[in-house]
Design a protein that fits this description.
single chain, alpha+beta, Heat Shock Protein 90, 2 domains, five-stranded mixed beta sheet, 8 helices
Length: about 350
Amino acid sequence: MRHPLAVKFARWLLPVVAVAVAACARVMLRDAMSEIPPVLLFFGAVMASAVFGGLGPGIAATILAALAIDFFLFPPYDAFVFPSSRQTIELVIFCAEGVFISLLSNVLRAAVHRAQRSEREARELERRIVEVGDAERRRIGHDLHDGLGQQLLGAAFMAKTLQKKLDSDAPPHAAYAGEIAATIEGALYVTRDLARALSTQTIGRPDLPTALADLAATTEKMFGVTCAFHRDANLTLPAGESSEHLYRLAQEAINNAVKHGHASHIDILWQTRIGRQVLRIRDNGCGFDPGANRAPLPPSDAQTNGQRDKRERGIGLRVMRHRAEMVGGQLEIGPGATGGTIVACEFSA
């Protein structure tokens, strides 16, 4: 991190260096540029000082340039003299333009700094949203496993106990109790798969390929779609935090494919390129335009389901893009060659 004093020193050193360079160049070309106004070459020094240093250095460069022009370029050369009326007008105009350039550059510089600060705040907000979302997802997963899962397990046990009691007295009712127990067990399996998908971190798994293969299997069970995982050999496994971001990116893309794209077949592809790796989620759904979901929608009690759907997709896309940036990658979303949507994240190996 740059020291504040060093930055301040560099800002005020800039006008001195810039004016000195301009003065040296103008003196060397004094004879060749005798017909050109002497102030012309110094505008660049003033503009550079104002853009990179701010208002103060810009005005300082203007003053230094005026002194250099008087000393080096107004005859008699290499001496401070009171300029003629024509030369005085040139200096006054130059100083006025230099101050105007400094003021304008300072306004632009402040606007750039505000934009950069807003961008940093937006990125920090996105990071916090992702962290809170991950924590809330894990909490819900734990609640499903420890709360609803245990209740379903108890209900299944009670149904099986009832089935045993009815076996001798009322066999038809016993069979119905068995069906109830089987249904509850099916709901219990779905709940456990959902809890595992929500609460499990890839950091605690053997590696990302294993986590993605489990995600494909869980997707088939939960949504009743075909989901397959394919990977190239000899892949370089990312670090734990990057692995978590890639896993959640794939999970969000799959959710979008099922919920918004109404896909029936999804492929998770992890492939290598020259010095890069690509994680793709490809589906055969109806597709969508990612650019149409970037504009925020105003909250309203009368908001339709379609508007909520677009808002959810917009938030999901922002989260996926943030996760791609966190692994040093870039997210690309577009239509597939035969329809559907392809979500691709290319990152360094």
